[in-house]
């Protein structure tokens, strides 16, 4: 972004005509923005990422029939290894990267480890969609407006092991558990419903949730460039190095965060963890650790082994 000009570039690995359709649609939106827009499309990632302040990595290879999660991690990992190296070569040194393509946590990890020139804290994996879904479920259950729900965090992996936090959530400024006095609903209905919401939508409509995902990407960016309201938070999966909750370093793990609106953030350090929440966090941390081991050859770590072959499928529907 330079002055009154907004430069949008798109990496089109398939040389697909649809990319040019998107380009034309963006140009049609020019009248709604107060900047001159230039859109370019290319196939060389180093060229496309040149000087980039923000990189939204939306695409990833979906799972095919009979493909295990370990295979998906490896095949997408090779793509994000290349993208990470390209970002390292040509993006702005303070570029902010948001990975949407699944499995987004480990894809973001691979890109991060292959871009040492860019601060590790600048890499994000999208869990804002999960947060938005959690807020909606709490609002519906309480019979309140969505905007009355705050302090909702998503912990861990963007998979079915994710942990939507109801313990620290608030509705109308009150603890959610004081408004919805139903511990069984929180644990047995709310938690799995948020994690499996994408699958429910696909089952009903036959398509993935593209619109709500697009809104959540915009929300994720807004959370970094607009100051977080006092006492609130937003969810994003970021590098776990030095986090205040004892999650092992070297993972891309979703935490409650807050921002001053300068593109940076800090992990909130005042969230309460009970035994149930700790147990859930340990499970999603373990899954992310195993995913990291599966892609160790792509992040410069030797001797890793892949222990998720044949394990329970925790994929989110967008990986299919």
Map the helices and strands.
Layout: E1 5-11, H1 17-28, E2 36-42, H2 45-48, E3 54-57, H3 69-90, E4 96-99, H4 104-113, E5 123-125, H5 128-142, E6 149-150, E7 153-155, E8 163-165, E9 170-171, E10 174-175, H6 176-179, H7 183-195, H8 197-205, H9 210-225, E11 234-239, E12 252-258, E13 266-267, H10 275-294
Parallel strand pairs: 1-2, 3-4, 4-5
Antiparallel strand pairs: 6-9, 7-8, 9-10, 11-12, 12-13
Which H/E pattern describes the elements? EHEHEHEHEHEEEEEHHHHEEEH
| CATH A-level architecture of the domain at 128-284 | Alpha-Beta Complex
Distinct helical segment count:
10
Radius of gyration: 19 Å
What is the gist of this entry?
With 320 residues, the chain is of the alpha/beta class.
Structure commentary:
This protein is α/β, with parallel strands linked by helices and 320 residues long. Among the domains are: 1-43, no CATH class; 128-284, Lactate dehydrogenase/glycoside hydrolase, family 4, C-terminal (L-2-Hydroxyisocaproate Dehydrogenase, Chain A, domain 2, Alpha-Beta Complex), CATH 3.90.110. The chain contains ten helices and 13 strands. The strands form five sheets. A three-stranded parallel beta sheet has the order 3-4-5, with helices on both faces. A three-stranded antiparallel beta sheet has the order 6-9-10. Strands 11-12-13 form a three-stranded antiparallel beta sheet. The chain is globular, with a radius of gyration of 19 Å. The model has no long low-confidence stretch (mean pLDDT 87). Its EC number is 1.1.1.37.
């Amino acid at each position: 972004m330079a002055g009154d000009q907004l430069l949008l570039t798109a990496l089109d690995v398939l040389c697909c005509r649809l990319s040019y359709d998107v380009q034309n649609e963006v140009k049609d939106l020019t009248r709604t923005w107060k900047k001159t827009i230039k859109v370019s499309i290319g196939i060389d990632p180093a060229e496309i990422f040149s000087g980039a302040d923000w990189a939204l990595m939306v695409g990833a290879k979906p799972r095919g029939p009979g493909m295990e999660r370990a295979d998906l991690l490896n095949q997408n990992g090779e793509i994000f290894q290349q993208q990470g190296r390209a970002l390292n070569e040509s993006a702005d040194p303070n570029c902010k990267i948001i990975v949407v393509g699944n499995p987004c946590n480990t894809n973001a990890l691979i890109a991060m480890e292959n871009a040492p020139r860019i601060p590790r804290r600048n890499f994000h994996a999208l869990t804002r969609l999960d947060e938005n879904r959690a807020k909606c479920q709490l609002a519906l259950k309480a019979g309140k407006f969505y905007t009355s729900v705050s302090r909702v965090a998503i912990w861990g992996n963007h998979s079915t092991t994710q942990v939507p936090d109801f313990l620290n959530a608030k509705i109308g400024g009150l603890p959610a558990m004081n408004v919805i006095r139903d511990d069984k609903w929180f644990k047995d209905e709310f938690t799995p419903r948020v994690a499996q919401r994408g699958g429910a939508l696909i089952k009903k409509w036959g398509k993935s949730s593209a619109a709500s995902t697009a809104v959540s990407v915009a929300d994720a960016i807004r959370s970094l460039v607009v100051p977080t309201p006092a006492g609130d938070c937003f969810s994003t999966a970021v590098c776990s190095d030095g986090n205040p909750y004892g999650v092992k370093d070297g993972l891309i793990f979703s935490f409650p965060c807050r921002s001053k609106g300068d593109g940076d953030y800090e992990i909130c350090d005042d969230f309460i963890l009970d035994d149930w929440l700790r147990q859930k966090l340990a499970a999603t941390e373990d899954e992310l650790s195993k995913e990291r081991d599966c892609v160790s050859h792509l992040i410069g770590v030797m001797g890793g082994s892949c222990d998720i072959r044949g394990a329970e499928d925790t994929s989110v529907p967008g990986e299919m």
